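Standup notes
- DV: blocked on the single-chain target, sequence here:
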Amino acid sequence: MRLLDMPIRWSIGLAAGLLLAAALPGVAGRALAHGGPEKVIDERFVVTVALAPDGDLTRLRFFFRDFQTGRGLTEPMSVRVRIAEDEAPTPLHAQRAAVVGSWADVLYQFPHDGFYEVVLEFSLDGEPARVYRPEDWRIWVGKPRGLDSRTWAGVAATSALVTMVVVVISLRRPRAERGGAR
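- DV (later): unblocked, structure below
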């Protein structure tokens, strides 16, 4: 099948894929280095972290759920959280957190805007010798940064190019295939 013989939905799909492929590395890049906010541990638990401002501090709230049922954990547990600057070996902050219901809160005043590594360890009080440690979180704390003019120019140029490709492909197909008069 030649490029110009593709159905319109394929050309739109191709255009969307190209645009996403061009934009995703610049936008997501290092922020997704350690996955998303949810971590699955031993196909037994799911831990999610959420950040929110709390005065001059930042609240990190960790939610604990059962992997099978999705319900919040109600078993007593011990939680330890360590926070380090991005790619620094020494933690800035280490704290044990009380678990209330199925979540634990940590309040911390981050020294400056930037990426931080958050490490969580927890154990159920019923099995204290077993320590669970999900993959670390890499979080951005601070004001969102705007994109520089070169990035915006690249996104605009890629978008214009993809739009032109879709228009040219759709106009070069015979009118009957586009849904016009027969």
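- Follow-up: Residues 46 and 70 are 8 Å apart (CA to CA).
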